[in-house]
Design a protein that fits this description.
The structure holds 2 protein chains of 2 kinds. By secondary structure, chain A is an alpha+beta fold. Chain A folds into 5 domains: 2-72, no CATH class; 74-125 and 341-486, no CATH class; 131-338, no CATH class; 487-525 and 754-885, no CATH class; 543-736, no CATH class. Helix content of chain A is 54%, strand content 15%. Chain A contains 30 helices and 21 strands. In chain A, the strands form 3 sheets. In chain A, strands 1, 2, 3, 4, 5, 6, 7, 8, 9 and 10 form a 10-stranded mixed sheet that branches. Chain A is elongated. Mean pLDDT of chain A is 85; it is low at 482-486. Chain B is an alpha+beta fold. Chain B has a single domain, classed as Winged helix-like DNA-binding domain superfamily/Winged helix DNA-binding domain (Arc Repressor Mutant, subunit A, Orthogonal Bundle). Chain B contains 4 helices and 3 strands. A 3-stranded antiparallel sheet of chain B has the order 1-3-2. In chain B, β2 (62-68) and β3 form a beta hairpin. In chain B, α1 crosses α4 (82-108). The longest helix of chain B is centred in the C-terminal third of the chain and has 27 residues, at 82-108. Residues 1-6 of chain B have low confidence and may be disordered. The chains are: A alpha+beta, B alpha+beta. The A-B interface holds A 1-2, 5-6, 9-10, 13, 23, 26-28, 30-31, 33-35, 37, 56-59, 62-63, 66-67, 69-72 and B 26-28, 45-47, 50-51, 54-55, 57-60, 63, 66, 69, 71, 73-76, 81-83.
Chain lengths: 885, 109
């Protein structure tokens, strides 16, 4: 029964607090009264008796406090009390509260906003089972540099699964665009041809219906389709009766056998899947890399092990099939990593910057708290005198700061909700639909947990910092002092150190922000050289079944170009396989130069490969450097020609004279025809992540037509107005076709560097916050110091110092702190900018001018912030100052 | 100011329990009783007495009741609980063992 008594005592102390308090008071009161009686009986006077009794008892309040402590509830009880007290304190100092909460909210909010991005894009891009065991597999053709398209030869892919012991399963696929027949024409839909094991490998099956059967991988049986949830809802009203019905894709009927669950999309942004039916000749092919491969690793196998296994297996294939596989190796990359080869550094940069903002906010808050603690010295002394133990005081401070950080956490969450929504919608869906996980950017439980964690951590940190700072208050001294308290030397040094730290953080952040903005402006300028304002672009993909040979393709596109060129106001109509800023890498090709054997066997040069019609270069204002451009007569009937980029000419013909030389595309043994170089054009920067000087080979469209081409129209004005006429022109020629991605090139360019713009804006916001926080920090410390030194400054004045000297003294203090900060920050900033230039290659370049510029900005801001406290020093009246304390 | 003779840590509890084992008592009387019985050797510091009483009550070794004091005032009377009686016995025998052990050491060495 003891435990029962125990708990009931405990509950009584907790919930009948007033009664318990009263009883405690009367119990101790009775003791003293009884003692007084005793003393009276011993012959003392009334007054003596009372005094003696009180003296013997000691501090009544201290005893009470100790009694309360013995009851276990004191922790909860006093916590509530402290929170109430803390709330009162915060209400009474609205200035401090607002500044502290805002500072913290900015610091925490920046982190939650960025973390919500990192969480969605990096940690949860796909909703697949055991995402970390999914890897992309591809073969590389021994290129000397650049970007491979990540393809495999079908026969090699099959061998990778059967010949190695590392994959649980491996599936191949090939993305494709389809024209879905709708009531009035067609809707272009991005889809994917997949082998039957595709959904098994991903671990996600259809929500309705079934997956693909093995036999549907054979040509002739492949006319079945699985639809994505979004397309099903959008086009078919989410009707389950669609299963078993036939829909028309590229003019052929496909039976709907399944509907995928919501949010499933792979490879993004696919909306339908049909079987990848390869003929037996295609299946046995090792020469051409025609499929993409995705594999699931065996349990406990790592990507590194897979890479090693695959590399040695590729060696065996090389020996076994020297004709096709020489110089070819194979590699795997975790699916999660594959997506973010280019953007990962951006997000890491943002996350690091956000952490810096939080650190800055913490430094600022620490300064604020310390200022406040100085003002509270007397209160602390009073509390100690009245019986508060150091533990009890610590509890009080921690409760107060926790309350503060709780408020900041709430503010931060609302800031994040708002900023995350802004972030998610600030880039066009045309770009974001290619980004797995983008729609998942939201403030979810993980983000909330981080916010709470940060808030609580910061609360505790500052609570304990205040405790340490208050230290052991010297009771007598503090109480006797008439002034608000004094700043000891070590504390002043601590605060100065915080200001120095703020200067360091601020400069580093500002430099990062500046470099990113500079990179963005430079990129925008690069794309501005195409004069994209008056260009319209549209993509078209001719279905292979109805456009089976190159004559049909060229005939169609030629006719389209003619009718487009005939529209009023169109200055040029042209075709190309890929436009700059499309956010798609160019195809890459191997090539060899006539009469120039490779320096090493197996070493073959590579370059970007594009196909373009004659007017393409003039339409995009790409300058001709030497030779000539394509003409209408560069067709199948005459010698094959090529135009190369300037960097290719410089690299392979450094002395000039590229025009007239011949090259051959493909591997060493390729039987492609020789191409004669007829012209050299200016370099273009394909995408923001590509360095600008990539060698590029353009082939003439009429000699190398492709099914999928991008049409560009340069017009006099209002390019968007040509979208409808272009769509009509296409429909008139083939009702089963519809162009996609119709957009002005300007919009395209803006979207394609949208991520850099957002990065720049976020960094700029961070930089600005850093600047504000550090100026507030400098202002606070100097104000404090002037207030502390009023007496000293007064004496200086009285002894004949000129007010200007005092101003110099204060400003000098500010400059000294800033100077120390800058000495540390400048090298760090430069190092950071070098790192940034490395990880965000081609966008950011390390620039000393930016470092110098922001150093100057920082100095000016600090001087302005220091000016106000300094002016106060000027106004000191020596008489008042001397009486000040 | 002279310090009252410090009680060995933990012995205050024992003294309190033993004192109120005879009859319910209020705090002041407990202090007086201990002082008187020990011939003024053991001076119970009030600052220690009340926290000790509250702690013992919290642990349910003792219980309290408000009653009329000898001078007709309301006072808080403490008495042993059942668990407290057992606890006192155990503590008493502990003490006996300890003090006779110390006595042995002091005599023989």
């Amino acid at each position: 029964m003891r435990w029962f008594q125990n708990i009931s005592n405990w509950l009584r102390s907790l919930f009948r607090r007033n009664t318990v308090e009263q009883e405690l008071g009367s119990e101790l009161g009775f003791h003293i009264e009884r003692q007084i009686e005793e003393n009276l009986a011993a012959g003392m006077t009334e007054k003596e008796a009372r005094l003696a009794a009180m003296r013997e008892f000691g501090g009544v309040e201290q005893v009470k406090e100790e009694c309360r402590d013995t009851r276990r509830v004191s922790l909860i009880d006093t916590l509530l009390q402290d929170l109430r007290y803390g709330a009162r304190m915060l209400r009474k100092n609205p200035g401090f509260t607002v500044v502290a909460v805002l500072t913290l909210a900015l610091g925490i909010g920046a982190n939650t906003a960025i973390f919500s991005m990192v969480n969605a894009l990096l940690l949860h891009p796909y909703d697949f089972n055991n995402l970390d065991s999914l890897v992309r597999v591809w073969e590389t053709r021994g290129m000397d540099e650049g970007y491979d398209a990540r393809w495999t030869a079908p026969a090699d892919a099959a061998d990778f699964l059967s010949g190695t012991d590392i994959f649980q399963n491996l599936t191949t696929y090939r993305d494709q665009s389809f024209n879905l027949a709708i009531e009035d024409g067609v809707e272009p839909v991005l889809g994917c041809r997949v082998s039957a094991s595709f959904f098994d490998v991903l671990g996600r099956g259809p929500a309705l219906g079934r997956g693909f059967a093995q036999k549907e991988e054979q040509p002739g049986f492949e006319q079945v389709v699985i639809l994505g949830h979004g397309l099903w809802q959008r086009r078919f009203g989410g009707n389950p009766a669609l299963l078993g019905k036939t829909i028309k894709l590229n003019g052929r009927g496909y039976t709907v056998v399944g509907i995928m669950p919501e949010k499933f999309s792979y490879p993004v942004p696919s909306e339908l899947w049909v079987p990848l039916a390869l003929s037996s000749a295609e299946k046995a092919d090792r020469k051409q890399l025609t499929t993409m491969a995705l594999a699931r690793l065996k349990p406990r196998a790592s990507a590194d092990q897979a890479n090693a296994a695959l590399a040695s297996y590729a060696n065996r294939l090389e020996q076994k099939y020297p004709k096709t596989n020489t110089g070819r190796s194979a590699t795997v990359l975790p699916l999660r990593k594959e997506l973010y080869l280019y953007t990962l550094p951006l997000f890491l940069l943002l996350q690091v910057a956000a952490v810096f903002v939080l650190l800055l906010a913490c430094a600022n808050l620490a300064n604020l708290m310390f200022t406040r603690m100085i003002g509270r010295q007397k209160e602390i002394a009073m509390r100690t005198t009245l019986g508060a133990s150091p533990r009890r005081l610590a509890q009080l401070f921690v409760s107060e700061t926790l309350l503060l950080s709780f408020l900041a956490g709430i503010a931060a969450v609302s800031v994040s909700f708002w900023s995350v929504r802004l972030l998610r919608t600030s880039i066009s869906v045309e770009w974001t639909k290619w980004v797995p996980g983008w729609d998942g950017i939201r403030v979810n439980t993980a983000v909330m947990a981080l916010t709470i964690l940060l808030a609580v951590a910061v609360g505790f940190l500052f609570g304990f910092a205040s405790v340490l700072h208050s230290g052991k208050a010297n009771l007598g001294k503090t109480l006797k002092e008439s002034a608000a308290g004094s700043l000891t030397r070590s504390r002043a040094r601590l605060r100065s150190a915080l200001v120095v730290a703020q200067v360091v953080f601020a400069l580093v952040l500002l430099v990062c922000a500046g470099l990113t903005m500079q990179g963005f402006v430079r990129l925008a300028a690069v794309y501005e050289s195409f004069q994209p304002d008056s260009v319209l672009k549209a993509e078209l993909n001719l279905p292979e079944n109805s456009y089976s040979d190159t004559t049909k393709i060229t005939a169609f596109y030629q006719q389209l170009l003619h009718s487009a060129a005939a529209m009023p106001g169109v200055k040029a109509a042209a075709l190309a396989t890929n436009l700059p800023a499309s956010n798609v890498d160019n195809d890459v090709t191997l090539f060899k130069i006539e009469g120039r054997p490779p320096a090493k066997p197996n070493e073959t040069a590579s370059a970007d490969l594009l196909s373009a019609s004659p007017d393409y270069f003039s339409a995009l204002r790409i300058p001709l450097m030497a030779g000539r451009l394509f003409t209408e007569s560069d067709n199948k009937a005459v010698e094959r020609v090529a135009v190369i980029s300037r960097s290719m000419a410089d690299r392979f013909w450094p002395g000039g004279g590229a025009v007239g030389k011949r090259i051959k595309l493909g591997a060493r043994d390729s039987n492609e025809p020789w191409l004669k170089i007829v012209g050299v054009v200016g370099d273009i920067r394909q995408n923001w992540w590509n360095p600008s000087a990539r060698p590029a080979i353009y082939t003439a469209f009429l000699q190398s037509p492709r099914h999928a081409m991008t049409i560009v129209l340069r017009v006099d004005a209002n390019p968007a107005g040509y979208a409808a006429p272009l769509r009509d022109a296409v429909r008139q020629m083939d009702p089963g076709l519809a162009p996609t991605g119709i957009n002005t090139l300007k919009t395209e360019v803006v979207d394609s560097i949208g991520i850099i713009r957002i990065l720049g804006i976020l960094m700029a916001v961070f930089g600005l916050v850093a600047l504000i926080l550090s100026s507030v920090g400098v202002y606070g410390v100097l104000s404090e110091s002037v207030a502390q030194r009023t007496r000293e400054l007064g004496i200086r004045l009285a002894l004949g110092a000129h007010p200007q000297d005092l101003m110099k003294l204060v400003m000098g203090h500010a400059l000294k702190l800033t100077g120390i900060g800058l000495v540390i920050a400048v090298p760090i900033s430069f190092a950071v900018s070098c790192v940034m230039a490395n990880v965000i290659f081609g966008v950011v370049t390390a620039d000393l001018a930016v470092v110098a510029g922001f150093t100057l900005v920082l100095i000016v801001v600090v001087l302005v912030a220091a000016y106000f406290p300094a002016r106060r020093a000027l106004r000191i009246d020596p008489m008042i100052a001397l009486r000040y304390e | 100011m002279t310090k009252p003779t410090d009680l060995v840590q933990g012995t205050l509890d024992l003294l309190i329990l033993k004192t109120i084992a005879l009859e319910p008592m209020h705090g002041w009387a407990i202090a007086q009783r201990i002082r008187r019985v020990s011939n003024n050797v053991l001076q119970v510091n009030q600052g220690a007495l009340y926290p000790a009483l509250h702690r013992l009550e919290q642990q349910a070794w003792i219980q309290s009741k408000w009653g009329e004091s000898e001078n007709n005032r309301r006072a808080k009377y403490y008495s042993l609980t059942k668990a407290g009686q057992k606890y006192l016995k155990a503590e008493e025998s502990n003490w006996e063992r300890l003090s006779s052990a110390i006595g042995l050491v002091l005599k023989t060495v």
